């Protein structure tokens, strides 16, 4: 299947979860926020949230600095 990730097409296997997506992007354990179809999904729900062909996913990483 193919989702839209941060505005670009991104292929994924069927049955992929948000948790698996975050891990595949090497962002596990980092300060990130994820929205699916403009709805923020709490990190506690990532393992249960299956992605679908039409999903538009935005991943935002917090980066400190000054």
From TrEMBL:
<dbReference type="InterPro" id="IPR016155">
    <property type="entry name" value="Mopterin_synth/thiamin_S_b"/>
</dbReference>
<dbReference type="InterPro" id="IPR012675">
    <property type="entry name" value="Beta-grasp_dom_sf"/>
</dbReference>
<dbReference type="Pfam" id="PF02597">
    <property type="entry name" value="ThiS"/>
</dbReference>
<dbReference type="InterPro" id="IPR003749">
    <property type="entry name" value="ThiS/MoaD-like"/>
</dbReference>
<dbReference type="InterPro" id="IPR010035">
    <property type="entry name" value="Thi_S"/>
</dbReference>
<protein>
    <submittedName>
        <fullName>Sulfur carrier protein ThiS</fullName>
    </submittedName>
</protein>
């Amino acid at each position: 299947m193919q989702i839209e990730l941060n505005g670009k097409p991104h292929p994924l296997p069927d049955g992929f979860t948000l948790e698996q997506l975050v891990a595949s992007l090497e962002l596990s354990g980092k300060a990130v926020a994820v929205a699916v179809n403009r709805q923020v999904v709490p990190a506690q729900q990532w393992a249960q949230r299956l992605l679908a062909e039409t999903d538009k996913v935005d991943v935002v990483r917090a980066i400190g600095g000054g």
